[in-house]
């Protein structure tokens, strides 16, 4: 049986101008993954992690103009639905991971959302919600968040700063958003234009440190905005360097025996063919490197 992967793009109409992009992703993953529509996260699931007053405000009032500016997007019912399906995809991937070792969400990775406010294109923090859901359902093992999006996972860092059972690693561009960084358990801040060799040299000891926490469940934010030329990135990885980044994460996961949830994170390259190729590569490598886990789903 093929491994499953969830996509909000299959649950909702594709965003304007992105139909061809998602078509390329579906074509690239055909025969490798069983693509499924992402379900919508429920309010009670979001409330396991997010502040109740914040959720009441979002669902009943929406966001004010100032709050929308902080989010970086105009709030609308359609945006709320996309956020719910994005988070729901991660919750569905969590179920797959806890049952069979590997769970895949083509979306998610909204790591800038805080417990009580939205920012940086992130309305809900899907990984924080997923960890809370796992705990609520009886999972008591150690968790590792490997966040390799080009932007620091500031919201995720805040969610888990006082939780010794969750280790947060963020490898990001030093001078990129957010301007004020939060404290992860391990932050690796890289200078502008860092390329493949320098990036991988910094990544290896960071992964060694992070996996020394002996996780039983790993969340991998596989943002592809580290690619050279990304509109919102400041690093300079090639497609080949990105592949090696992902392989190193997957090998560590395989060696650790931990269950893995992969979430999409950011990607804002103007070349949509390159962006789609990067996305496809990340998920195809997950199956190739973790074939045994993928075969159980």
TrEMBL record:
<dbReference type="InterPro" id="IPR023696">
    <property type="entry name" value="Ureohydrolase_dom_sf"/>
</dbReference>
<feature type="domain" description="Histone deacetylase">
    <location>
        <begin position="34"/>
        <end position="271"/>
    </location>
</feature>
<comment type="similarity">
    <text>Belongs to the histone deacetylase family.</text>
</comment>
<protein>
    <submittedName>
        <fullName>Histone deacetylase-like amidohydrolase</fullName>
        <ecNumber>3.5.1.-</ecNumber>
    </submittedName>
</protein>
<dbReference type="InterPro" id="IPR037138">
    <property type="entry name" value="His_deacetylse_dom_sf"/>
</dbReference>
<keyword id="KW-0378">Hydrolase</keyword>
<dbReference type="InterPro" id="IPR044150">
    <property type="entry name" value="HDAC_classIV"/>
</dbReference>
<dbReference type="GO" id="GO:0004407">
    <property type="term" value="F:histone deacetylase activity"/>
</dbReference>
<dbReference type="InterPro" id="IPR000286">
    <property type="entry name" value="HDACs"/>
</dbReference>
<dbReference type="Pfam" id="PF00850">
    <property type="entry name" value="Hist_deacetyl"/>
</dbReference>
<dbReference type="InterPro" id="IPR023801">
    <property type="entry name" value="His_deacetylse_dom"/>
</dbReference>
<dbReference type="GO" id="GO:0016787">
    <property type="term" value="F:hydrolase activity"/>
</dbReference>
<dbReference type="GO" id="GO:0040029">
    <property type="term" value="P:epigenetic regulation of gene expression"/>
</dbReference>
């Amino acid at each position: 049986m093929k491994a499953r992967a969830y996509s909000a793009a299959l649950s909702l109409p594709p965003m304007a101008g992105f139909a061809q992009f998602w078509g390329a992703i579906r074509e690239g993953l055909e025969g490798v993954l069983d693509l499924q529509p992402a379900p919508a996260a429920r309010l009670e699931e979001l409330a396991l992690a997010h502040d109740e007053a914040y959720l009441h405000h979002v669902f009943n009032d929406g966001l004010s103009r100032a709050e929308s500016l902080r989010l970086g997007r105009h709030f609308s019912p359609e945006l709320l639905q996309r956020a719910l399906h994005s988070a729901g995809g991660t919750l569905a991937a969590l179920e797959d991971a806890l049952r069979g070792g590997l769970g895949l969400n083509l979306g998610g990775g909204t790591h800038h959302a805080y417990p009580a406010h939205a920012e940086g294109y992130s309305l809900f923090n899907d990984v924080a919600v997923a960890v809370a859901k796992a705990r609520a359902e009886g999972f008591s093992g150690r968790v590792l968040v490997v966040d390799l999006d080009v932007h620091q996972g500031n919201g995720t860092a805040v969610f888990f700063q006082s939780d010794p059972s969750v280790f947060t690693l963020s490898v990001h561009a030093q001078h990129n958003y957010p301007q004020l960084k939060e404290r992860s358990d391990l932050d690796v801040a890289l200078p502008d234009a860092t390329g493949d060799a320098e990036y991988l040299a910094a990544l290896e000891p960071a992964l060694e440190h992070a996996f020394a926490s002996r996780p039983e469940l790993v969340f991998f934010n596989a943002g592809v905005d580290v690619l050279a030329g990304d509109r919102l990135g400041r690093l300079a990885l090639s497609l080949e360097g990105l592949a090696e980044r992902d392989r190193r994460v997957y090998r560590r996961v395989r060696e650790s025996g931990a269950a893995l949830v992969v979430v999409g994170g950011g990607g804002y390259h103007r070349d949509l063919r390159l962006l789609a190729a990067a996305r496809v590569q990340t998920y195809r490598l997950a199956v190739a490197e973790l074939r045994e886990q993928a075969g159980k789903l």
